[in-house]
Amino acid sequence: xxxxxxxxxxxxxxxxxxxxxxxxxxxxxxxxxxxxxxxxxxxxxxxxxxxxxxxxxxxxxxxxxxxxxxxxxxxxxxxxxxxxxxxxxxxxxxxxxxxxxxxxxxxxxxxxxxxxxxxxxxxxxxxxxxxxxxxxxxxxxxxxxxxxxxxxxxxxxxxxxxxxxxxxxxxxxxxxxxxxxxxxxxxxxxxxxxxxxxxxxxxxxxxxxxxxxxxxxxxxxxxxxxxxxxxxxxxxxxxxxxxxxxxxxxxxxxxxxxxxxxxxxxxxxxxxxxxxxxxxxxxxxxxxxxxxxxxxxxxxxxxxxxxxxxxx
Length: 312
Hints:
Blueprint: E1 4-7, E2 10-13, H1 14-24, H2 32-66, E3 88-91, E4 96-99, E5 106-111, E6 120-125, E7 134-136, H3 137-143, H4 160-177, E8 188-194, E9 197-202, E10 207-209, E11 216-222, E12 225-233, E13 236-242, E14 256-262, E15 266-269, H5 280-304
Parallel strand pairs: 6-15
Antiparallel strand pairs: 1-2, 3-4, 5-6, 7-14, 8-9, 9-10, 11-12, 12-13, 13-14
Helix pairs in contact: 1-5, 3-4
């Protein structure tokens, strides 16, 4: 029998209890006794209402199971998702395609509560597929049929010709969503942040900026030599990673090593309604993972210098 800790009327799994006390609470300013007593009071107060809602949900599910199938029901296709073929990544360093196993499930749906006031995409992700909240456009394009296979196969060893097509497509994507006042991102040699916004030096010697300067929301590194640019379009964020020492960036005229996309306007990391996080041990593993990611991100930002806002 698993060890538990008694708090009021609650019996709390010891593993979860220790995680909250040892990992989650330190640094928050909340004392253990105050947290657990407050939590127990909330559970006791909400239990009657929660019981009613659970019973209603169970009854609704039973009614749907017994209801006859709808005739002539039309299924509306979901939004287009660019997904790597077999979730593969390309790695020029190894000259091969890397397999990234698909794990868990995700659910996509419109989000009508976006801060922009319009509709957008909302993703609900289970813990094991949380990396899909952000994704490399380069990786997704290489493994998908968005890039034609005429002489540039997506299977087998890394194909430099296909890699060049991926980068060209990504530049065209930047032109569509973050157009320049003059010229194209294809001809960019460098990016720097000024008081007016983002300045882009082109191959013809001209310096231009974004058609919509407000699309540049932030950057990391030095203003004259940023390591990352944060751009936004229709509520979705995009990161342009710049690293001339990177195995991709060193061969790129502007030093761009990757373009990372936010997959949805809002993302729910579903740590409860998931077969991957059922018992206390699994839930603590998920919570510790996300707590570590948040701490790691903060520490990295402190070490590298916090992102700064693009002035426009």
